[in-house]
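Look over this record before class:
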Amino acid sequence: MSSKQPARKTTAKTVKKPTGLQHRKQARAWEADMELRTYRPEQLLSPPELLSRFTERARELLSELPEEHRPSGSEVGVALRQAVLEAFRTREEYLARLVETDATSWTTGMPAVSLRRAIRTSLIDSGVRVVESADEREHFVVVEGEGEGFEVVRPAYVDQATGKLILSGQLRRVFRPGTQADGGNGTQDATAKEDQP
């Protein structure tokens, strides 16, 4: 009598127990990617260095202008200084909003709907109008579909202060209720009205 037991056959039905190896690999890859993206102190922008580079370039450009159209050096310096400082203030505000959004996403147990609402609140507080109505077609690009009606695929984002479009929305053409394709050739029934929702 042999005390040897027959070897177990592995089949497709054998379920592997989760060890977390794949999750750990993904976490390490993400951390490595974040390390590569991290700014080094010597790469950070310095307002005085940036201002000196802009001033040097402005002087080069101004030397090409005729004397009668040339602004004074002090006017150029003041304008550049204000522009650089304003750019840094804008960058700080932008980074603050990104940090708030990231901090919100890290809130323990926050469901996706709550996160979307928090991001939307942050956008509105920042002066961004989110357009989710296909009635404002000037803010959208039609990306697909057939028919006379429209449905929003992605909202449009507009700067409330300037009225400028930040990101155009996307619309899909759809057949309006009560209309249908005529014989499958993509034309609509003649009863469809132009701007009816």
About this structure: The first helix runs from residue 21 to 37. The two ends are 84 Å apart (CA to CA). Residues 127-174 form one domain.
